[in-house]
Amino acid sequence: MSTTNLHSTGDGSTLPLVAPSRTLETTAPFRWLREGYADMRHAPWQSLLYGLAMAVICMLLGAMGLTFGGYLVPLAIMGGIVFLAPVLCLGLYAISAQLERKQPAMLGRTFREAARSRLGTELVFALMLLVVFLVWARAFSMIQVFMPVDAQPDMQDLLSYIAVTVAVSGFFAAVTFASSAFALPMIMHRDVDAITATLTSINAVLRNKKPMALWAAICLLTVIIGIATGFVAAIFLWPLIGLATWHAYLDTIDASAFPRHTEGITATPRFLD
Question: Total domain count for the chain?
Fold first, then answer.
């Protein structure tokens, strides 16, 4: 896939508005999981530490939801998983990037990569997700107003309410998934702005609907299993998804037209580059 949309870099040169995406086979997500698991085997305790951090954050958010309002419980947990987890996954991307370069997976480097080297662009992307989250939360709270609890609703009323809730939540989940599927890995990999990374991610998802639908289903399943086990399984499953996402990005996006970072792990080419 090629694109003719260009934008200026500020130094007189131009870059594509979005990075091209490759065409994926439907079963590609299973390959990503295998590659992510291989990385986890090479850096087990580093990966599980990130999984523990994700699980603890979601438990804290759930506790806050229980404290301040019952209906906020699922929303708070969902917010932690959908919006905070991708940011935490930056450290997991750094682990995979170090392994690709035959470097030891050092936690200090992953923290610096996630928290300092790309901080400005990451914050812009996080702000974009925050706007989506706030609109999502507002829509969710408005739906609760129409929940048929006092009028002894029949099954048809309940099914209609559930259908609307699922449709609205599904829409915002789809927007969030398409926007973040490859955006943060691209920000980690190349010197791009948040808008370019987000548009690239959306474009790649739309051009690979079947494999990305399968990938979304796998991600959703790991979320459900993680919650159902009291976040115990999440300690293993969520880092696996994070590591696999890095390989999904490299498999899907051709970002070679964009400049490398001048410092950090990804300033050095992979052995496969």
Answer: 1
